[in-house]
Amino acid sequence: MKLYTYFRSSAAYRVRIALNLKGLAYDAVPVHLVRDGGQHLSDAYLAVNPSGLVPALEDDGITLTQSMAIIEYLDEVHPMVPLLPRDAIGRARVRELAQIIGCDIHPINNLRVLKYLVKQLGHDEQAKTDWYRHWIIEGFRSLEAHLARNPGTGTFCHGDTPTIADCYLVPQVFNAKRFDIAVEAYPTIARINDLCVELPAFKAAHPAHQADAE
Amino acid sequence: MKLYTYFRSSAAYRVRIALNLKGLAYDAVPVHLVRDGGQHLSDAYLAVNPSGLVPALEDDGITLTQSMAIIEYLDEVHPMVPLLPRDAIGRARVRELAQIIGCDIHPINNLRVLKYLVKQLGHDEQAKTDWYRHWIIEGFRSLEAHLARNPGTGTFCHGDTPTIADCYLVPQVFNAKRFDIAVEAYPTIARINDLCVELPAFKAAHPAHQADAE
């Protein structure tokens, strides 16, 4: 398996965690989002993923994009160390928690959106930072409420083993900390993150531990 | 089943299509996103969904949010008229296509994001419209490329029966047309949309046919 990745991309970080949790070996192909005017926009990479976004996974001659689709695929094809619970309601809840991050926070703070704020709309660094923080704070308020109110929350986001939701939570907390969000204001998020980041699968997926880290 | 919905919400529109395709009856509970300062931000609705977003589905005493999680749940619990193919690669592809819309287009054009552009950043209607159109054009370019290059594309986004990807495509095309995007520039998207909108399940889910339509 070949994973097109960028050390700091949180969508790629999620997939790296999932691969590591399942103990699946892969070749990391770095795609630099800044260098060369953005290697993700090169003809070579657009032939891999016409969306021009990382990650992309090549497996068995097929190419998959979109982190959630990739992780669900890995979970179906390699069911050992399942990342979704066995019951339909549990699975729905894990997907819901992941999507609060994957749909309500992360896309709005994506690099290309931040670039639009600066280039097309003429905003400065401060306005960009305020924007970034705003959507994390909104999203964490919501995610914390979903986690805190539901008895399904265990030592991890759902139950006592890592699921897709945890693969999403840790990279988002990493981004939050980069932008000085006080994560301890969201006690359940902070508690689960603190537990996850000590696990080898999460550690090995950390941006600082990638071959393309700067 | 009870669906908290707003006639024009494209996330709610997706779930209505899925419910109709499966022939599942439901009670629509309208949540007006503008009236009363936004009924989705009321204490009553935040008790249903702390994220303050539609849709939410109540079924069997549980409440689910996030359109993708809801539709996958419906597909698991009511497997008649499946909305995902049987093979893992096909399922990954359908999820990927849906997420190009659900992650790369729709969240950036969500009402709360448009509000931030106007209120916090002081932009006018024109800048807001340019923003909205930009992310649809970017996303449709990408979606069209994914559809056009893959032999899995059939009369529908994947194969010859509707899947979750079609539940996502039709509401996004509806939004595109509201903002005068020339959808015919994306021939595969336009062809599939034209086919879908004639089907009863899609017709009944259309914003104009909802009890809360204006």
TrEMBL record, chains A, B:
<dbReference type="Pfam" id="PF13410">
    <property type="entry name" value="GST_C_2"/>
</dbReference>
<feature type="domain" description="GST C-terminal">
    <location>
        <begin position="87"/>
        <end position="214"/>
    </location>
</feature>
<dbReference type="InterPro" id="IPR005955">
    <property type="entry name" value="GST_Zeta"/>
</dbReference>
<dbReference type="GO" id="GO:0005737">
    <property type="term" value="C:cytoplasm"/>
</dbReference>
<dbReference type="InterPro" id="IPR036249">
    <property type="entry name" value="Thioredoxin-like_sf"/>
</dbReference>
<dbReference type="InterPro" id="IPR010987">
    <property type="entry name" value="Glutathione-S-Trfase_C-like"/>
</dbReference>
<dbReference type="GO" id="GO:0006559">
    <property type="term" value="P:L-phenylalanine catabolic process"/>
</dbReference>
<dbReference type="GO" id="GO:0006749">
    <property type="term" value="P:glutathione metabolic process"/>
</dbReference>
<dbReference type="InterPro" id="IPR034330">
    <property type="entry name" value="GST_Zeta_C"/>
</dbReference>
<dbReference type="InterPro" id="IPR034333">
    <property type="entry name" value="GST_Zeta_N"/>
</dbReference>
<dbReference type="GO" id="GO:0004364">
    <property type="term" value="F:glutathione transferase activity"/>
</dbReference>
<comment type="similarity">
    <text>Belongs to the GST superfamily. Zeta family.</text>
</comment>
<protein>
    <submittedName>
        <fullName>Maleylacetoacetate isomerase/maleylpyruvate isomerase</fullName>
    </submittedName>
</protein>
<dbReference type="Pfam" id="PF13409">
    <property type="entry name" value="GST_N_2"/>
</dbReference>
<dbReference type="GO" id="GO:0016034">
    <property type="term" value="F:maleylacetoacetate isomerase activity"/>
</dbReference>
<dbReference type="InterPro" id="IPR040079">
    <property type="entry name" value="Glutathione_S-Trfase"/>
</dbReference>
<keyword id="KW-0670">Pyruvate</keyword>
<feature type="domain" description="GST N-terminal">
    <location>
        <begin position="1"/>
        <end position="82"/>
    </location>
</feature>
<keyword id="KW-0413">Isomerase</keyword>
<dbReference type="InterPro" id="IPR004045">
    <property type="entry name" value="Glutathione_S-Trfase_N"/>
</dbReference>
<dbReference type="InterPro" id="IPR036282">
    <property type="entry name" value="Glutathione-S-Trfase_C_sf"/>
</dbReference>
